[in-house]
Amino acid sequence: MGKPVRVGIIGCGKIAGQYLESFRRLEDVILVAVADLDPARAQAAADTCEGVRAVPVEALLAADDVDLVLNLTVPAAHAGVALRAIAAGKHVYGEKPLAATTAEAREVLDAARAAGVLVGCAPDTVLGTGIQTARKAIDDGLIGAPVAATATMLTPGHERWHPDPDFYYQPGGGPLLDMGPYYISALVTLLGPVSSVIGAASAGRSERTIGSGPREGQPVPVAIDTHVTGVLEHTSGAISTLVMSFDAVQSTSANIEVHGQQGSLAVPDPNHFDGDVRLFALGAEDWVALPVSAGYLGSGRGYGIADLAATPQGDEPRAGGTLAYHVLDVMDSLLASAHTGQAVAIRSTAERPSVVALADIASPGVPVPSGSTAIRE
Hints:
Layout: E1 5-10, H1 16-23, E2 29-35, H2 39-47, E3 53-54, H3 57-62, E4 68-71, H4 78-87, E5 91-94, H5 102-115, E6 119-121, H6 129-139, E7 146-154, H7 174-191, E8 194-202, E9 207-209, E10 219-221, E11 227-234, E12 239-245, E13 256-260, E14 263-267, E15 278-281, E16 288-289, H8 303-309, H9 321-340, E17 344-345, E18 359-360, E19 375-376
Parallel strand pairs: 1-2, 1-4, 2-3, 4-5, 5-6, 7-12, 18-19
Antiparallel strand pairs: 7-13, 8-11, 8-17, 9-10, 11-12, 13-14, 14-15, 15-16
């Protein structure tokens, strides 16, 4: 793909601000244009970044100085926008999930392959020091052969804080489709691809009430499952238990735990890029925090684009379309299993992404945290 990569954003909602912040630190990612169905929102985003222009969507897709389209639209629009970008000859990096359905996601990957362009997809949180330090600990044999993992995300619902939470409760949203990509991408990064699943799900309420912003007090209809649990069998033989809920309040469990024959790892929140990784070795008396040993230091949303740009030709990006498709396939299969009561074999697969060497790829002048052994690329 080459560096630097020139980016145009389609969709300037709440998540866009986090990408803009990362792009200010990344020399190999240059934001040149933004677009949104609401021109005022696009202009507001452009005004925060020197040299960035706000344009209509069609103009962004046609722009010669846009190499990659960052697709930050709502989930139901992910596939449609991605296909338009691919048809325009652009590489694509999208927010998760890759598409609302596996059929749409397959169409995106097939179109990209035919056009000779790359597809990347969030979450790139798996490239940060939290998940990557845990991955290196597993690779280094600190817990022995992995046998099991648990992944737990419990929250009373995004309507409590999000001013426009409607899409979270429509197809393509929900706790599994919204938060599951973080957890399942992390599990695949740690333990490898999934071969089969069995799930159960429920929807406790038919509507939710917005808790903040100008629409506070308004009802939001619920059209998806709001509590999903499942068992994932990895091709490695390890078994993961997953709980994703918008119906619970809190948990004392680590977000992810990985258990091996010689020890257990407590892994930080995969919705974040960093956090302590703790080890309880066989025969030890307590948990011990491991030193940061892998991943991009100080990373944030958008680092997956820099990683994609640096991917050797012919290789699959770590936060790539194949992994995102596999994760979506796992989630769709979990929901299908929940509704039929039968185990579902996963037809897709994805290679376990390579570990990220400890590095700071931010712009020169950004300090490396004290005590780290990071290298600057």
